[in-house]
Amino acid sequence: MSFANKITIFRILSVPFLITTLVYYTPQKDYLRLIALFIFALAIISDAIDGYFARVRNQKTQAGAILDPLADKFLLITAFIFLYHISNQYFDIKLPLWVILIVIFRDVILLLGGGIIILTNQENKIMPTWWGKTSTFFQMMTILFLLLKLNLSYYIWNIAVIFTLISGIDYLRKGIVMFNAQPQKK
Q1: Could you tell me if residue 66 is inside a domain?
Q2: What is the rounded CA–CA span in Å between residue 157 and residue 84?
Q3: How far apart are the first and last CA of the chain?
Q4: Structural domain range at position 160
Q5: Model-level pTM?
Q6: In a domain, 68, yes or no
């Protein structure tokens, strides 16, 4: 197993710890928000490090190509869901449900589309795009800003939503083109 894959697995394993800190958070236990912030920041840093090792140190693997985006989605979706709950209960700035639904809907569409392409056309590879990476960046910033209780969170999540919608449309368009361009497996 490559070092990049080990870092990705670390990111996946950090999610239950993040969830635990958010589940037990109350204003009286504000240190749990800070621990969640630390865990999430560490997960973001680990994402950059595993990407560096995969690309620059030539540690790309098929497992990493699957695990890395899944780790990102697992981390972000769970963080959004649990932060929705605590922000609406305890924070001054409330994360709207529609933000989470857009993030989850796009990721479900991507996973279903990727699964269909893989099942019907094994020669195509789904590559991350600039739109997708930008979307992920602003989604991560949304979580960080919320955990920091910054009023700017509103602006960041709106930017995240815009890039999430654009990247979803871009991936869907590319997936349709890819699906129609190759003969299907028999």
Answers
A1: yes
A2: 12
A3: 33
A4: 3-181
A5: 0.88
A6: yes
